[in-house]
Each structure stands twice: as structure tokens, then as C-alpha cells.
Design a protein that fits this description.
Layout lengths: L14 H9 L5 H4 L4 H4 L9 H11 L7
Length: 67
């Protein structure tokens, strides 16, 4: 697994998932926390395997997905 970067916490994701977040303007974990998991799964490039990684990133910073 790649080293986590404070500058870009999304480097742990596959490139398609990184691009999907970028295309939707999600550049921080705080921005990510404003979305529901179900919303992200509708985005091209975000698949079921991305959600646990994103959930873990959020949890490490005291955040969760929007409910």
C-alpha cells in the first residue's frame, strides 16, 4: 500500500477513484465527508472496493460519510 500523504490523502486509492474525486471537486477529507456512500458509488471510477478505503481515511481524521 502506498504511503499516505497529508497533502493528498487519496493517493491510497486506485487512479480511477482519484480521478473521480478530482472531477467532482473533492480535494479534502472534509469535502468527502459531505457526501453519502451511495452518492459516490454513482460516480464513474468509484467502486465498492473504494468505499472501505475512504471510510478508513475519514475515520483516521475523526470524520464519517454524510448520512
Amino acid at each position: 500500500m502506498q504511503k499516505r500523504s497529508e497533502a493528498d490523502p487519496f493517493l491510497v486509492l486506485a487512479k480511477p477513484a482519484q480521478r473521480a474525486l478530482s472531477e467532482h471537486g473533492v480535494t479534502t477529507l472534509q469535502m468527502l465527508a459531505t457526501y453519502r456512500e451511495e452518492e459516490l458509488l454513482q460516480w464513474h471510477g468509484i467502486g465498492p472496493s473504494s468505499i472501505p478505503k475512504l471510510r478508513q481515511l475519514l475515520a483516521e481524521h475523526g470524520l464519517t460519510f454524510h448520512t
